[in-house]
Design goal:
With 240 residues, the protein is α+β, with helices and mostly antiparallel strands. It has three helices and ten strands. InterPro entries: Ca-dependent_lectin (IPR051077).
Length: 240
Amino acid sequence: LLSVWSSLGLDRTDRLLISSDPQALQVQINNLIQELGKTNQEVSYLKSQLSSQHHQISSCAGSTFTVWGKQSCPKVNGTELVYNGFTSGSQYNEKGNGVNTLCLPHDPENLLTTISVSTGNDYAHLYGAEYQLNIGRVRIDDNVPCAVCRTTMASSTIMIPGKRSCPIHWQKQYTGILTANWYDYQESEYLCIDNDPDYVEGSRRNENGRLFYPVKTVCGSLPCPPYENGNLLSCVVCSK
């Protein structure tokens, strides 16, 4: 009873009046119960709004990246697999085609639109990819897998060449070996192959395509130190 009096802000005179008038007390208690019910409804509404906003923020946040040389994503909290597939790109010695490297899915869906070209050769080409290095289970001419990943705990992902660690407050996704096409072939991207690479099963044949060679430093316009001539380069993929 005392707690009810305090909640209603009653002074001593009011308390004496209520204590001698049970009907008035019941009215006050009913009013208090109604107010409490309204407060609970407001709290439930605010919880619902907070949950909705949290879901919207979670669905909008995130960053995607590709792990070259792996069929799975890093075992990092908040990182999930979008899809995996086959690394592909331009033939190492063809002058045209695209310059970027792609991760082709295992389950392609054919083009439904009919198109025509001027001659039978007016097309770009897309090939698979092969390692040109031996490391762990991988051998030269093995085909290169890939995994497209999404981290829900970050909005940016970068590859840093020449490093194995990430800047402060950045999350390491994976470390690797910096690769590119051979220096006397056509240009290609510098890509970070996972340090513990996989290979596509049943693909140990020399069929060329997009080739992955390890990268060495060359002193001159590249300052040495801090770099050393002829060193292989590491790389790391970081998210924040």
